[in-house]
Design a protein that fits this description.
InterPro entries: CheY-like_superfamily, HATPase_C_sf, HATPase_dom, His_kinase_dom, HisK_dim/P_dom, HisK_dim/P_sf, PAC, PAS. GO terms for molecular function: phosphorelay sensor kinase activity. The chain is an alpha+beta fold. It folds into five domains: about 5-135, Response regulator (Rossmann fold, 3-Layer(aba) Sandwich), CATH 3.40.50; about 140-250, Beta-Lactamase (2-Layer Sandwich); about 275-370, PAS domain (Beta-Lactamase, 2-Layer Sandwich), CATH 3.30.450; about 375-460, Helix Hairpins; about 470-625, Histidine kinase-like ATPase, C-terminal domain (Heat Shock Protein 90, 2-Layer Sandwich), CATH 3.30.565. The protein contains 17 helices and 23 strands. Strand 2 (about 50-55) and strand 3 form a beta hairpin.
Length: about 625
């Protein structure tokens, strides 16, 4: 590094030493003379030289290096305090490979420029070695040789050289033939290169096209050396030509392949992003990924994969990404959600692979994203269907178990009572016969109730029962329901009410619009449960009141209560509380209540405590009828 500013030298040194991808051995010089000495002794890979030095112009360093370098471009980066186009052009002409404006230099920019130059320099050096080897190999192959006498302008070709130009030796007519066969667009380039070799110390190296008599175009590469007299005047130029058409075709194929790759990269219906090693943000993204996420190309280049990933899915990818970076795996594939610019999410399948250098260092990560939202939706629907089928199977199994249990016992009772009456009819008293017949009737009624409940649920589910409101006296409706249930059992139901601006009186009436059938099914099942799960000596509280636009029914008992672990499945068909013991039941009452309330647009809430009882509150929308 040749720069008179100690502060700048230290700053640039810090930048380079901080680069984790490359190790640098830095040599410093504060003057042109010191820099030249280091160059001759150390032959560094890269030189950073300021054009403004105390003891001369830094461009002189390029002039000094040129004869000592065996490649056309020198491994030199020119540093300038300010941009000067003339100086830049002059530096490039002298062989500099790059230039940097000091005020624009950043750590990343400097490291990137130096690494790129080193890579390019090494590539050119390797290319030179390969070229030398190729030349040695071609000496024993078909290489054309030519000899030009500058003083007499006599041009001599050997047979191989004539073949390279597509002519027979007998048709060769010196310079005239050469000029006729060279592509017209390349003549000025060749003449300029020849003049530089004649006036300077450089050998002639030139690539050009020739047109054969059959109009075939071939690419040739020529090398030549100038022989000079004692005064340094050019006397003779001797050179070789060889066909590089295949090489040019390969280069063209490579360019075409790169173009095709670029088109595929942009047009393929899969989102693609490239991430450079040690750089958090995207290095390159294609059009499809931009369209998927709703970002412009420039907007997306400011983001990274984490910033477009659903927060809940970050932990899913993190360990895989860490393994890929560490080299433990070369690729991975996951399904995750991506966040669009508008905040929406979509499902994508990410396939990630890593690209490493010859030393195993990580260069790039490539991620390919395919939108699988539709597939995910199908999978979710299938999962829901499977869950529903599973529930249906469980329900069917539960129903079979329940039916076999709930129907077997009543049928046994009926069979036993019938058999006794039939076998001992002549011996049984009238009272005993009546008792057996009563048991049969009650058992049949119990079984009929189970079947009616099932049919009720099925009718509601199949929309065979419609919501049909009609003007009804609420107080009278509740009184009739109370009396009907009391006659069936041994419990007392205490009914009370509180109306808006009214007191309890036997003649009190409140006409409201509701479906009496659905409401009776609802309240009857709640009251029946309260009676069933309460001791016989305890009464059930049945209370009615009003809220604006609502009828409120509240039923309280002091029974066994509902365990909290049963609350979630309380309204599932055939589900019964875990503490019901031997109390008969099917588990359909609350299902009927739920279906009826749904048709009625009503709501149900309950409070329950084990051993202390349950309070159920029903709210029904209503329209008062004057």
């Amino acid at each position: 590094m040749i720069d008179h500013s100690k502060q700048d030298r230290c700053t640039y040194a810090d930048y380079l030493q901080a680069d984790e991808t490359t190790q640098y051995h830095l040599l410093m010089a504060d003057s042109l003379e010191a820099g030249q000495a280091i160059w001759r002794l150390q032959q560094p890979d890269v030189v950073l030289v300021n054009v403004d030095l105390p003891d001369g112009n830094g461009l002189f360093f390029l002039e000094m290096m040129a004869p000592e370098s065996f490649i056309q471009k020198l491994p030199v980066i020119v540093l300038m305090e300010q941009r000067n186009e003339q100086t830049i052009i002059q530096a490039m002409k002298l062989g500099a490979m790059d230039y940097l404006i000091k005020e624009e230099i950043t750590a990343f920019f400097l490291c990137h420029s130096v690494n790129r130059l080193v890579y390019r320099y090494e590539l050119e050096r390797e290319n030179r070695k390969l070229t030398d080897r190729l030349e040695l190999a071609l000496k024993s192959s078909h290489i054309g040789i030519w000899d030009w006498n500058i003083d007499t302008n006599e041009l001599i070709w050997d047979k191989s050289n004539c073949e390279l130009y597509g002519i027979f030796p007998a048709d060769f007519q010196g310079y005239k033939t050469w000029e006729k066969r060279v592509h017209p667009e390349d003549l000025p380039l060749i003449n300029q290169a020849v003049q530089k070799s004649l006036t300077g110390d450089q050998e002639l190296v030139v690539e050009f096209r020739v047109i054969w008599p059959n109009k075939t175009v071939r690419y040739l590469k020529g090398y030549a050396l100038v022989q000079r007299n004692a005064e340094g005047d050019p006397q003779r130029m001797i050179g070789t030509n060889f066909d590089i058409t295949d090489i040019k075709q390969a280069e063209e194929d490579l360019r075409r392949s790169e173009k095709i790759f670029r088109q595929l990269f942009e047009e393929i219906p899969i989102g693609i992003a490239m991430v450079e090693a040690n750089i958090e943000r995207f290095y390159q993204v294609n059009r499809t990924l931009c369209e998927m996420l709703g970002y412009s190309h420039q907007e997306l280049l400011q983001l990274n994969f984490n910033e477009i990933t659903h927060p809940e899915d970050l932990a899913l990818e993190a360990p895989l990404a860490a393994q890929a970076i560490a080299g433990e795996i070369t690729s991975y594939q996951i399904e995750k959600r991506y966040r669009k610019k508008n905040g929406e999410y979509f499902w994508g399948q990410l396939k990630t692979t890593t690209i490493r250098g010859t030393k195993g260092e990580l260069l790039y990560g490539i991620g390919m994203v395919e939108d699988i939202t539709n597939r995910k939706q199908v999978e979710i629907k299938m999962q829901v269907s499977l869950e529903q089928e599973k529930k249906l199977n469980n329900l069917r199994s539960h129903f079979i178990t329940m039916a076999s249990h709930e129907f077997r016992t009543p049928l046994t009772i009926i069979y036993s009572a019938t058999a006794l009456v039939k076998k001992y009819s002549d011996r049984l008293t009238a009272e005993k016969k009546e008792e057996h017949l009563t048991n049969i009737i009650k058992t049949v009624q119990y079984m009929t109730k189970i079947l009616d409940d099932m049919l009720m649920i099925n009718s509601v589910d199949n929309e065979k029962i419609q919501f049909t409101p009609e003007p009804t006296d609420v107080i009278g409706f509740c009184e009739n329901l109370k009396q009907s249930l009391e006659t069936k059992g041994h419990h007392h139901i205490h009914f009370s009410w509180q109306l808006e601006q009214s007191t309890q009186h036997p003649s009190t009436r409140l006409i409201a619009s509701f479906d009496p059938y659905l409401l009776r099914q609802t309240l009857e099942n709640i009251l029946s449960n309260a009676i069933k799960y309460s001791p016989q000596q305890n009464s059930v509280e049945f209370y009615f009141t009003q809220e604006p636009n609502y009828l409120i029914f509240q039923i309280s008992d002091r029974g066994i209560g509902i365990p909290e672990e049963d609350w979630e499945d309380l309204f599932q068909p055939f589900h019964r509380g875990s503490n019901v013991g031997n109390i008969t039941g099917v588990g359909l009452g609350l299902v009927i209540i739920q279906r009826c309330l749904s048709l009625h647009g009503g709501q149900l809430n309950f409070k329950s405590q084990i051993g202390e009882g349950t309070t159920v509150t029903v709210r029904i929308p209503q329209e008062r009828i004057p």
